[in-house]
Design goal:
The chain is α/β, with parallel strands linked by helices and about 150 residues long. The protein has a single domain, classed as Glutaredoxin, CATH 3.40.30. About 20% of the residues lie in helices and about 15% in strands. Strands 3-2-5-6 form a four-stranded mixed sheet, sandwiched between helices. The protein has a two-stranded parallel sheet with strand order 1-4.
C-alpha cells in the first residue's frame, strides 16, 4: 500500500481530528466512538498517512508533552527505546519509521488536544456524557417499568 505524506495539520473547532494507528485496539475503538458523534470528522490513520515533522511538533506542543511521550517505547515488535535519549529530529525519525509506536490516539478539536487513554475519551472534546445517548430531563418519566413484580430498581 502506498503511503501518503500529509502537510501541516489544520485544526477547526467544528471538526474533530483523530490521529490513530488502525492496527491498535484502542485506535479502532476510538475511531468507532468518533464516527458515532454527529460532528464533522477528519481521520488520519498513520499506518497509511505520514504526518509531516511540523505537524508532529505542533501536536506535541498542543498536548503540552515532549515528543517522546507521545508513543510507547516498550513494544516487543518495536525498536528498543526504553533508555533512548534522542533530540527532536531523532524522535521524529523513530516515529516516522515506526508509526505503530503511537498506541494512544490523539484527538484534536480546534485548540483542544487530547491523547486518549480510553476510547470514550474522544467524547470529552464535545462535552458529551455518553456515546450519542440523550439525557432525559429531570423529573420526566422515561417509561422504564419493572418487567415483573420481582424486579427492583436501585
Amino acid at each position: 500500500m502506498e503511503e501518503a505524506d500529509m502537510g501541516p495539520l489544520a485544526t477547526n473547532n467544528r471538526q474533530l481530528t483523530l490521529i490513530y494507528h488502525s492496527e491498535t485496539r484502542l485506535g479502532k475503538q476510538a475511531l468507532g466512538y468518533a464516527q458515532g458523534s454527529k460532528n464533522k470528522l477528519q481521520v488520519i490513520d498513520i499506518s497509511k498517512t505520514s504526518l509531516g515533522d511540523t505537524a508532529w511538533v505542533s501536536i506535541a506542543e498542543g498536548l503540552g508533552k515532549p515528543l517522546h511521550e507521545l508513543f510507547a517505547k516498550d513494544l516487543p515488535e518495536g525498536p528498543r527505546l526504553q533508555k533512548a535519549d534522542f533530540d527532536t529530529n531523532g524522535w521524529l525519525k523513530v516515529l516516522n519509521n515506526h508509526p505503530a509506536l503511537l498506541q494512544r490516539p490523539i484527538a484534536i478539536n480546534g485548540e483542544e488536544y487530547l491523547q486518549l487513554e480510553t476510547p470514550s475519551d474522544v467524547l470529552k472534546l464535545f462535552g458529551a456524557d455518553s456515546a450519542g445517548l440523550e439525557k432525559n430531563p429531570r423529573g420526566m418519566d422515561d417509561g422504564i417499568q419493572p418487567g415483573s413484580d420481582g424486579d427492583t430498581f436501585v
